[in-house]
Amino acid sequence: MQYPIIQLFENDKNIYAQSKGPEQASVSLFHIFVNSIILDSQGYKRKVKEIRKVGWANFWGYHPLIKGRTAKIEYEFSEQEHLSLDNFKSLVTERLLAGVNKGFWYAKKDIPFLVNKVSESYDYKSVVECFIKDLYK
Predict the structure, then answer these.
(1) 132: part of which helix (H) or strand (E)?
(2) What is the number of alpha carbons within 13 Å of residue 129 lying toward its C-beta?
(3) DSSP secondary-structure letter at 41?
(4) Which residue stretches of the chain have pLDDT < 50?
């Protein structure tokens, strides 16, 4: 998996981007990763079958500002396919517009500008970076 990545969760219309690994997650949230989709900066679409704890994050999983324990995780994928750049962009744009229609966090942002930035992107990595950098202003 090549970073940066976009992660699309089942039953969540938001688009989450991550610029680097190693992945970490709260142990109590492991279940939300199952069936999520990861789009990496090489154009691969992967569906998460399960995640596994490979070690504790921070001090044995505890952090003073986070409730519960945090673990370093590793993904196991059930599906993998390489998307064309146009299919990659359309998948991201569809999720973006679906979230706008439902009134999620980016409903008050300049969505036409963001959709335009995604469509103007020249490679997979630049599409993902649209969601890492604050391009909404």
Answers:
(1) helix 124-132
(2) 8
(3) T
(4) 135-137
**Residue 44 to residue 5: CA distance in whole angstroms:** 10
Q: What is the 3-state secondary structure (H, E, C) of 63-126?
A: ECCECCCEEEEEEEEEEEEECCHHHHHHHHHHHHHHHHHHCCHHHHCCHHHHHHHHHHCCCHHH
**What are 79's two structure tokens?**
């599906």
The pTM (predicted TM-score) of the whole model is 0.82
Q: Using CA atoms, how far apart are residues 50 and 65, in angstroms rounded to an integer?
A: 26
Half-sphere exposure of residue 66: CA atoms within 13 angstroms, side-chain side: 17
What per-residue confidence (pLDDT) applies to 62? Answer: 76
Q: Are 124 and 42 in contact (CB under 8 A)?
A: yes
How many C-beta neighbours within 10 Å does residue 48 have? 20
Sign of CA dihedral 18, 33, 13, 124: positive
